[in-house]
Design goal:
This protein is α/β, with parallel strands linked by helices. Helix content is 50%, strand content 16%. The chain has a four-stranded parallel beta sheet, with helices on both faces. It is elongated, with a radius of gyration of 19 Å. The relative contact order is 0.12.
Length: 126
């Protein structure tokens, strides 16, 4: 039987989806947050074949969880759920609203962006 870790903060959504997936023959483990999902996944003896997680969770986002799983538990498949708008916003949040540099690279612009980042870090350390 395939074991699935369902990561969904909304109890109404999670309960209905979990019930449906169980009826379809899956063993479903429910997690209310990315942090809780990581606890389940940290147990290397846990038999989890697939993770279904929302992109915009309440604590961390699904992208961070997917990245962690691919690094720490690569045998587990990951499906991220959400809207394109949420995915775009989360990706934008990582880049401080938009990419800092564009491709093809303008070497001088890359150097300027690096210098600004280093200067900001140095100001923060003082």
């Amino acid at each position: 039987m395939t074991s699935l870790l369902l990561v969904e903060a909304d109890i109404l959504v999670r309960a209905a989806l979990a019930a449906y997936l169980r009826e379809c023959g899956f063993r479903v483990i429910e997690a209310t947050s990315i942090a809780e999902a990581r606890m389940f996944l940290a147990d290397v003896n846990a038999s989890i074949d697939l993770v279904l997680a929302e992109i915009g969770g309440t604590d961390e986002d699904g992208f961070a969880l997917a990245s962690w799983i691919r690094k720490e538990r690569p045998a587990i498949d990951v499906i991220l759920a959400g809207t394109l708008e949420t995915a775009t916003k989360k990706a934008g949040d990582l880049c401080e609203s938009e990419p800092s540099v564009t491709k093809p690279y303008d070497h001088q612009l890359v150097l300027d962006r690096i210098r600004r980042a280093v200067a900001g870090r140095e100001r923060g350390a003082k």
